[in-house]
Amino acid sequence: MTREIRRRALGVALTAAVLCACSPQESAEVSIYGAAAGLQDPASSDPASSDPASSDPAQPVPVLRPEVLAEVPHDSSAFTQGLQVHEGTLYEGTGLEGRSELRELDPATGQVRRAEPLPGQLFGEGIAVAGDRIWQLTWRDGVVLQWDRATLTLRQQVPMDGEGWGLCFDGTRLVRSDGTDRLRFHDPVTFDETGSVPVTFDGEPVTQLNELECVDGQVWANVWPSDALVRIDPASGRVTALVDAAGLLDPEQRMNADAVLNGIAALGNDEYLLTGKLWPVSFRVRFVEK
Ligand SMILES: [Ca+2]
Question: Which of 218, 239, 269, 284 has the least C-beta neighbours within 10 A?
Fold first, then answer.
């Protein structure tokens, strides 16, 4: 696959995502890379092309797909907005007004061990474990919640500018997406904003980055409302890999147009747990060349 075809493939994906943002009813119809699905990529066998550390703009961006290793039950009432495994526990943040929760689950079975509702009508978004804290974004409520990880009790609400979409912790700083083309960085103790970077693919802005996962210095992001994920080098903001996850969920199991892919949690050994809003199943996967 040439660089131009790759650029067009992502363009199809991201254009579809943007177009569908104003028409949620169509979002379930989006088939990312549908136009490019038949393309073969002889160059993709080059290991250098999928080097996670590579952010060289001259390098082709690998197109990956999830290889399913196992299926794990997922609560189909969970409007998944945040997903992270930490020390053997799966943490999940869910959304919607009056239905948002912070949850603790068994990653092997999907069983919900504990769940705490958000106060009032707060609309929960991404979560990130940072030491003994769990930060949980709200969408448009102007606050971020800080929970005590051990007890799942709410410690405080901190004012926050802009919208909250996805969140992850890279060991030093929190990384937040907000619906724009920016990743913002925050102090993990105070949530003070410490900087930001615009996200681009071939120089074009990439917006609507949703649930995030910080792994080995890179940031994985779901692209709402598509079946695509991108891997971003947070130093440059450049997209360094694409994942086409179309077809992961059986269409008959997709409850409605809002039930999009939106959850990625690193499991170690290059394995990930993927799920979506209102999905009845999560998938343990490995990313392989498409
Ligand atoms: Ca995550």
Answer: 269
